[in-house]
Amino acid sequence: MLHKFDSNSEAVFNKVSQRQDSTFKLLYFPIHGVAYASRLILATTGAKFESASPTNWVEQKATTPFGVLPVLYETVTTKEGDSEVQEVFEIPESEAIERYLARKFQLLGQTPWEEMKINAFVSSTKSLTFLAFSRIPTVKDTVQKQEMVQDMVNKSVPAWVQSHERYLVANGTNGHYIGDKLTLADIRALIVIELVLALTEDRVISQEKTPAIWKLWEGVRAIPSFVAWRNTDSYKQFDAGYQTFVKGLLPLKEQ
Amino acid sequence: MLHKFDSNSEAVFNKVSQRQDSTFKLLYFPIHGVAYASRLILATTGAKFESASPTNWVEQKATTPFGVLPVLYETVTTKEGDSEVQEVFEIPESEAIERYLARKFQLLGQTPWEEMKINAFVSSTKSLTFLAFSRIPTVKDTVQKQEMVQDMVNKSVPAWVQSHERYLVANGTNGHYIGDKLTLADIRALIVIELVLALTEDRVISQEKTPAIWKLWEGVRAIPSFVAWRNTDSYKQFDAGYQTFVKGLLPLKEQ
């Protein structure tokens, strides 16, 4: 049974939201885009998931809860007497999907303090992500765009690296922001670290220059289910688009 | 005692985070900006708060947890034996502040279902807010900028209005997204409704055209503590800047 976003499925949803054995389908365009963090959660936690793309977006658009993607479909199997029933839940909106998955997989901390800290690291990281993947690409004028890229690389990136390295060192350079646990802060940081490495190679982030950020990067990247995801055709397609996007930011390279 | 963001204050923070009698100081520039949602939470819930601005930002910048504003300072009074102790907590980053306050004041729902729905409405609303207050203002080229404003008014705004009116009607046109409770979804919607009214007067949102959105707007605006905040000098200063910003989007008016 499909429980649409606007259905009255609260009781069953509240029960199912705790389940750890769901399978997921994330419907989105074949790019990282605003689904990247959610896919990273699914990949790093070892969840069973597939990335699907709309076959006819113009028609499908009106059937989604807000006329936008991503939409997450979570499937769980429940028992009714002797028979098994499939319950499918529709969860729209990138930020809602990310928070729902992060909560489900215990990536938002276990105390108010941890949650506040995770949210602060995430918010700081998202500002830089948003600059790179939304504000800068919005600008068509090539002169302004290039100025913004330079400004990002010369100011926003070093500011992020400096403060986040400091907090990661303070936590023991163990590859995490909070204790020894994987959290949404680590996962969100991956997106920025990948971007910085693509834009500046080893000039800003490296094992020598930023050992704590580097430890996070290597640690999360080594999670077997994440390694496995990077070997899928879906990931390779998203990554090819990503590399093209980054090259578009990069007359930089000739500096 | 001031508990900085990087202090080891978890135990006392976890206790204090539940307190409903704190006083707050929100340090930010004298504009609505990315502090608007947090100030709206404080104003609509009747919290005791003041808006403060940096006196010398160039010097103060380095003393903040991430070199950016807003930063929230929460003060609670605790008893130690016969004497009272003031505990002050520093909470950085707009999104972390907003989530922390929303959690404290029960604006994120009481079940996983409510939280997922609130997050979805908030995420949808933030996309439009981000377009208007961040992506469009980023663009310097006046032709592109005006095209984006037109596109927002002709496409993004009607899409938001249509889907959100539908969900608010489905909840009974009672001025709320979830039950009969004020939530972060309502508060975030205010920001978009105010913008749409400023840009399009009664052409898109009105009591006749969108009764459910209108009910939310009037209902939240009538909360006495929010009315009181709109009469403060701080609010009036922020609002003056806001009106100037909106006018900058508005050759539209001549349509």
UniProtKB/TrEMBL annotation, chains A, B:
<feature type="domain" description="GST N-terminal">
    <location>
        <begin position="22"/>
        <end position="109"/>
    </location>
</feature>
<dbReference type="GO" id="GO:0004364">
    <property type="term" value="F:glutathione transferase activity"/>
</dbReference>
<dbReference type="InterPro" id="IPR050213">
    <property type="entry name" value="GST_superfamily"/>
</dbReference>
<dbReference type="InterPro" id="IPR036249">
    <property type="entry name" value="Thioredoxin-like_sf"/>
</dbReference>
<dbReference type="GO" id="GO:0006749">
    <property type="term" value="P:glutathione metabolic process"/>
</dbReference>
<dbReference type="InterPro" id="IPR036282">
    <property type="entry name" value="Glutathione-S-Trfase_C_sf"/>
</dbReference>
<dbReference type="Pfam" id="PF14497">
    <property type="entry name" value="GST_C_3"/>
</dbReference>
<dbReference type="InterPro" id="IPR004046">
    <property type="entry name" value="GST_C"/>
</dbReference>
<dbReference type="InterPro" id="IPR004045">
    <property type="entry name" value="Glutathione_S-Trfase_N"/>
</dbReference>
<dbReference type="InterPro" id="IPR040079">
    <property type="entry name" value="Glutathione_S-Trfase"/>
</dbReference>
<feature type="domain" description="GST C-terminal">
    <location>
        <begin position="111"/>
        <end position="242"/>
    </location>
</feature>
<protein>
    <recommendedName>
        <fullName>Glutathione s-transferase</fullName>
    </recommendedName>
</protein>
<dbReference type="InterPro" id="IPR010987">
    <property type="entry name" value="Glutathione-S-Trfase_C-like"/>
</dbReference>
